[in-house]
Amino acid sequence: MEPRTDNGLRARDLDKRESGNLIGSDKVEGTNVYNHANEHIGTIERVMIDKPSGKVAYAVMSFGGFLGIGDDHYPVPWSKLVYDESIGGYRTDLSKAELEDAPRFRSEDDYNWEDRQASMDVYNHYGIPPYWI
Predict the structure, then answer these.
(1) Which H or E run contains 11?
(2) What SS3 class is residue 86?
(3) Residue 99, SS3?
(4) Are 30 and 14 spatial neighbours (Cβ–Cβ below 8 Å)?
(5) How far is Cα 52 from Cα 26, in angstroms, rounded to an integer?
(6) Which of 21, 44, 66, 127 is deepest in the core (most CB within 10 A)?
(7) How large is the average pLDDT for residues 70-81?
(8) Is 112 inside any structural domain?
(9) φ, ψ of residue 40 in degrees (nearest 5)
(10) What CA–CA distance (Å, rounded) separates 46 from 76?
């Protein structure tokens, strides 16, 4: 019998969700994020995709808390992350201090994804142009 993953998928089915330069969103979720000093600074909870353009706008990263309790959630512009095969995770040029000062929310109900000014605040914090420009 073929081994299954935690979510009940066969290993070969999970492999089909990653091919060449493409990766399924379910394989991105839960991936660790490290800074250039190899410090683990968070975990990707989900990606937010702009429906009209199809562009990935943000990776929502969890950081803080203990064992997932009390985590803060940070919308980080997708362009701030680069996949690094050698670590099996994403790398960013952000430090823990920069992330601690970044816009964040505590739960799904605390953030209005349609608030364009809040989105501008996120992109301004990271010093990069927003995905919609």
Answers:
(1) helix 11-15
(2) coil
(3) helix
(4) no
(5) 21
(6) 44
(7) 89
(8) yes
(9) -75, 120
(10) 11
- How is residue 42 written in tokens? 């968070």
pLDDT higher than 90, residue 33 = yes
> Is 81 within a domain?
yes
Q: Tokens standing for 23?
A: 């990766």
Q: How far apart are the first and last CA of the chain?
A: 50
Q: Rounded mean pLDDT of 90-107?
A: 86
Question: Which CATH number is 104's domain given?
Answer: 2.30.30.240
Domain residues for the domain of 121 are 22-126
Inside any domain, residue 100? yes
Q: Tokens 């490290």 belong to which residue? A: 34
CA distance 114 to 131: 14
Q: Quick count: other Cβ atoms within 10 Å of Cβ 9? A: 14
- Does the pLDDT of residue 78 top 90, yes or no? yes
> Please, which residues bridge with residue 40 across strands?
34
Query: What's the CA dihedral at 60, 63, 65, 66 to 10 degrees?
Result: 100
Phi, psi of 47 (to 5 degrees): -115, 145
Dist. CA 86–CA 24, nearest whole Å: 19
pTM confidence score: 0.78
Task: Count up the domains in the chain and report the number.
Answer: 1
Burial grade of 117 (CB within 10 A; 0-12, 13-18, 19 or more) = exposed
Neighbouring C-beta atoms of residue 33, cutoff 10 Å: 26
